[in-house]
């Protein structure tokens, strides 16, 4: 048994592919797995209340029996108004600041840079509250949020009557709906009203069943409006409320409209907007509204399913108890709930036509929320949206994409006023509804890389979808972010290399020697590198801007490399200032590891190890959002158990509130979203042109399955299942025609996808849903050329040739053969074993009948590569048939190289007319840095030899015709780079894969 890794290429599948399936490899979680529930109301605590939303509006449901409160938000209700926040004359100071930085005078640089900043930034504001007064008490109380239906519910009993309240926010109808019902007729009685914290407001009744709240906050005017529809009873309005008496049930339809059109246009009529939405929805029944809501929501939510194992015994407990108990129970079903809650929040707060999710998504009940509940662009806004691509919620990214493109106008002004350039655009570390892009808060706000980072989201969407029209629309925005760097980066004089650096800047919110300001912090350089490279690749794809592309290519070569410091850490700054004792929440210099792909364990091992050192030094205790980032980072380092440790740290009462909102503390939603991304990274990674399967699977989730994740290249993971820590099944589908490379446990599969194609792989990454052709007997069959298997692993022997190994008791492999006629056949099996015990191979037919048994004798083989042959006779019928080889014994049993089936001569079976249906490939020693293979393919069949590097990228290809021995040579005329390669030889339904080396 060889412990080296081996890569295996696989051919593409053809027509008549089987349908995708979701493999349930472990016990399903209980019904409560998608429900948050509680046995008491939320009181007055925001982080006990349950969120609902439709991308435009948000609501927080408190569920009180006597008095119910629903906090209301609308995505464009902010304070302040249109305008910019650039300090005039800032650019004239850049020369002095840079001179101070390069001479080490950080105090002067800090003081002068701080003068660029203002405090002119808006805050997200509450609309007010919908108040429902019932005037009774209750028992048998339950409050819940069902993630599968995006519906909150409150139930209780009062006076022998069971009452139910349902709350949802509909995207298709753009309304919040609240339904109150009872299990006895005529028992629904309540009054509904508004409260509002803003001073400039008015509340008025509209007709006999409606109410409006009008308010003004600086430039924003809004109207919140509802009507009530009742079944039976009486509805009346007056004195700023609407009363329902003696109804069987009733439902409230609510909308909030504002005058906001765009960052520089507030001319809409909020009353007309609110009335239009409510009037249209009022023409529908409750069931029609609910049906439209479910159809829209579930189309997004149901795309991803996650099963991490059997639920713990406390899985049915109230959700707040599960938060407290998780570090004791390690309940996998609670991780599933938390994961799907993150997806629920994204669907609820970020939809096309609305604003992007801010620091609190779309939920805020304070006039002065923490950090303004705005958009912080040095990590938090970007973290919100890491998960939308991989979690199959790409439509939810539209508000961010629209925001990024809309920032260009204001960002171009900031580029001119602050940085003195007429080219490109910039965002500093905060923005708001009004797209302000100037520095705020102080010297640490003069961070010029917000636009560069945001622009990478546009490129990532293209990588996931392959949508060239989207790329064409986004290109000018991406190009502008790169042009800003091109025209504002300067040569540093300290290294002797004249690297291009940002100056001034800072490493977000961290200090060196008490100062924020610096030049060329690592994060800036990494973001600039991505901005340049993404614009370069986009211009190539679109066939534009050849001259500008050359400028970008020249600039990217002049960026300083990632540096490793004296403590073995990845350096955060241009100079080695890192403090190994620092536990700072920001790990900005690890941007290159995640979300970027500049650092990887298989591509830049030294830098990956330095990143690991940095993470170890910073420690595992951090704010909620920082823990979420670190889950992603440890997953990229392919350390699943450490990533899981961060999951455990996040799912504690200190970092997760009772309603599962993330705690910085206080509440910030980025931790919820970042954790979803991190969990996805533990299962599937697709950066760098390769899909890595289970790259960071923690031992706690040893068996499970997931379906619906997205990977770059237009690939959907239809199903991924594993058992006892090993991959058992992988089903993928593709929307694009592209090269597909998959890696699992050191093995690589490579194929070419078709648009609409579906591809199914076993645990060895062998394609299992291509149409197999029966091997015509007599034949020699390689053990790895099975059509199905359970448990066996394809691996190389000491010469690099593949065989099957790691075989344990009960494992099996199946082979599809065609016997020319009925009779006896001699089976010879080439085996090797390092076991001290005998083991057996039992051959059975499709009906399970034993045809023959071979015993592997440890006396005849002394190691896992000490090959010998055992044989027996089988009685086979004529025609196509499947033979199952079942392996039995103790411990690891044997390796199997190949077997042959030949007719027993005395049976007189005629094989003269049978063509030898096989493919033979062997190596030939050649000159230095050349790879040569001898290929013998069946007569009349063509063959293809593809040479891949160890990342699965095609290096060369050669074709030929079978019938004779062909020499296939790579690197004879021009030397191949030294190293290992994979040769994939395919002829008809046969394929051979070899690991070869060029020296």
Rg from Cα? 32 Å
The percent range for helix content is 10-25%
- Return the average pLDDT rounded to an integer: 91
C-alpha termini separation: 26 Å
Q: Which strand-content bin applies to the residues?
A: 25-35%
Form type: globular
Strand order of the largest sheet: 1-6-7-8-9-16-13-12-11
Largest sheet: 9 strands, antiparallel
Helix/strand class: alpha+beta
Number of strands: 51
Figure out the total of helices.
17
Low-confidence stretches: 1-32, 910-916
Gist of the model:
The chain is 23% helix and 31% strand. It is of the alpha+beta class and 999 residues long.
Question: Notable features of this structure?
Answer:
31% strand; 17 helices; disordered N terminus; seven-stranded antiparallel beta sheet; 999 residues; nine-stranded antiparallel beta sheet; 23% helix; alpha+beta; globular
How is this structure best described in words?
The chain has 999 residues and is α+β, with helices and mostly antiparallel strands. The radius of gyration is 32 Å and the shape is globular. The two termini are 26 Å apart. Residues 1-32 and 910-916 have low confidence and may be disordered.
């Amino acid at each position: 048994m060889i412990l080296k890794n081996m890569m295996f290429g696989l051919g593409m599948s053809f027509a008549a592919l089987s349908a995708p399936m979701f493999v349930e490899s472990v016990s399903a979680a209980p019904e409560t797995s998608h429900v948050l529930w509680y046995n008491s109301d939320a009181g007055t605590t925001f982080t006990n209340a349950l969120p609902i939303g439709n991308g435009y509006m948000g609501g927080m449901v408190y569920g009180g029996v006597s008095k119910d409160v629903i906090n209301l938000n609308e995505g464009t209700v902010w304070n302040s108004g249109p305008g910019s926040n650039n300090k005039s004359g800032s650019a004239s100071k850049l020369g002095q600041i840079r001179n101070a930085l390069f001479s080490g005078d950080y105090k002067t640089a800090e003081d002068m840079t701080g003068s660029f900043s203002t405090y002119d930034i808006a805050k997200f504001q509450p609309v007010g509250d919908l108040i429902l007064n019932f005037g009774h008490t209750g028992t048998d109380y339950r409050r819940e949020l069902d993630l599968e239906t995006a519906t909150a519910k409150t139930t209780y009993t009062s006076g022998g009557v069971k009452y139910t309240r349902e709350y949802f926010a509909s995207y298709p109808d753009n309304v919040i709906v609240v339904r109150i019902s009872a299990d006895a007729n005529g028992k629904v009685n309540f009054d509904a009203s508004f409260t509002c914290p803003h001073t400039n407001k008015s509340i008025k009744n509209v007709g006999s069943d409606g109410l409006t709240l009008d308010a003004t906050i600086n430039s924003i005017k809004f109207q919140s409006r509802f009507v009530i529809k009742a079944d039976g009873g009486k509805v009346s309005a007056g004195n700023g409320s609407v009363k329902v008496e003696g109804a069987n049930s009733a439902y409230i339809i609510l909308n909030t409209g504002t005058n906001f059109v765009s960052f520089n246009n507030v001319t809409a009529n909020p009353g007309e907007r609110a009335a239009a939405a409510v009037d249209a929805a009022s023409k529908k029944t409750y069931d029609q509204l609910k049906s439209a809501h479910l159809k829209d929501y579930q189309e997004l939510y149901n795309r991803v399913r996650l099963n991490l194992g059997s639920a713990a015994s406390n899985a049915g407990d109230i959700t707040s108890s599960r938060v407290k108990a998780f570090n004791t129970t390690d309940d996998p079903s609670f991780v599933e709930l938390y994961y799907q809650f993150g997806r629920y929040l994204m669907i609820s707060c970020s939809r096309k036509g609305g604003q992007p999710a801010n620091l609190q998504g779309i939920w805020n009940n304070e006039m002065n929320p923490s950090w303004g509940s705005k958009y912080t662009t040095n990590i938090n806004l970007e973290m919100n949206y890491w998960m939308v691509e991989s979690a199959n919620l790409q439509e939810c990214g539209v508000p961010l994409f629209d925001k990024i493109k809309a920032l260009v106008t204001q960002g171009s002004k900031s580029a001119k006023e602050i940085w003195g350039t007429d080219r490109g655009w910039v965002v500093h570390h905060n923005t708001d509804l009004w797209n302000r892009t100037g520095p705020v808060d102080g010297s640490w706000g003069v961070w010029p890389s917000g636009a560069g980072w945001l622009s990478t989201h546009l490129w990532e969407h293209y990588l996931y979808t392959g949508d060239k029209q989207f790329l064409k629309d986004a290109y000018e925005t991406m190009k502008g972010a790169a042009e800003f760097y091109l025209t504002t980066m300067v040569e540093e004089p300290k290294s002797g290399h004249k690297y291009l650096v940002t100056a001034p800047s800072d490493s977000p919110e961290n200090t060196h020697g008490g100062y924020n300001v610096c030049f060329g912090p690592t994060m800036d350089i990494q973001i600039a590198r991505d901005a340049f490279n993404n614009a370069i690749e986009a211009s190539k794809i679109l066939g534009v801007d050849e001259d500008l592309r050359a400028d970008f290519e020249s600039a990217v070569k002049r960026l300083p490399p990632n540096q490793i410091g004296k403590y073995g850490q990845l350096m955060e700054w241009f100079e080695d200032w890192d403090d190994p004792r620092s536990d700072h929440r920001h790990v900005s210099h690890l941007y290159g590891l995640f979300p970027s792909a500049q650092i990887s364990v298989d591509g830049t091992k030294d830098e990956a190890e330095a990143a690991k050192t940095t993470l170890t030094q910073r420690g595992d205790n951090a704010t909620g959002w920082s823990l979420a980032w670190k889950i992603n980072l440890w997953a990229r380092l392919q350390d699943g158990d450490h990533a899981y440790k961060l999951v455990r740290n996040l799912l504690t009462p200190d970092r997760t509130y009772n309603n599962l909102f993330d705690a910085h503390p206080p509440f910030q939603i980025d931790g919820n979203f970042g954790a979803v991304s991190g969990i996805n990274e533990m299962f599937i990674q697709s950066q760098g042109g390769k899909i890595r399967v289970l790259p960071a699977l923690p031992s706690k989730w040893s068996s499970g399955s997931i379906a619906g994740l997205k990977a770059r290249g237009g690939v959907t993971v239809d199903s991924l299942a594993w058992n006892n820590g090993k991959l058992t099944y992988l089903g993928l589908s593709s929307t694009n025609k592209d090269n597909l490379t998959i890696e699992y446990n050191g093995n690589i599969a490579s194929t070419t996808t078709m648009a609409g194609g579906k591809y199914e792989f076993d645990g060895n990454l062998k394609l299992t849903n291509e149409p197999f052709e029966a091997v015509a007997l007599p034949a020699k069959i390689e053990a790895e050329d099975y059509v199905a298997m359970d448990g066996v692993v394809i691996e190389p022997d000491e010469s690099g040739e593949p065989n099957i190994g790691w075989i344990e008791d009960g494992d099996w492999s199946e082979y599809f053969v065609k016997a020319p006629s009925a009779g006896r056949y001699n089976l010879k099996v080439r085996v090797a074993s390092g076991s001290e015990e005998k083991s057996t191979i039992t051959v059975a037919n499709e009906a399970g009948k034993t045809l023959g048994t071979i015993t592997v004798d440890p006396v005849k083989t002394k190691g896992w590569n000490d090959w010998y042959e055992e044989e027996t006779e089988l009685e086979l019928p004529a025609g196509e048939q499947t033979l199952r080889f079942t392996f039995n014994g103790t411990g690891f049993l044997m390796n199997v190289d190949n077997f042959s089936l030949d007719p027993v001569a005395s049976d007189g079976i005629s094989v003269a007319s049978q063509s030898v249906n096989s493919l033979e490939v062997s190596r030939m020693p050649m000159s230095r840095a050349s790879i040569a293979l001898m290929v013998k393919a069946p007569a009349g069949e063509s063959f293809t030899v593809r040479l891949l590097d160890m990342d699965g990228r095609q290096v060369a290809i050669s074709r030929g015709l079978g019938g004779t021995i062909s020499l296939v040579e790579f690197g004879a005329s021009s030397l191949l780079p030294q190293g290992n390669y994979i040769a994939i030889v395919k002829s008809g339904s046969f394929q051979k894969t070899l690991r070869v080396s060029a020296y």
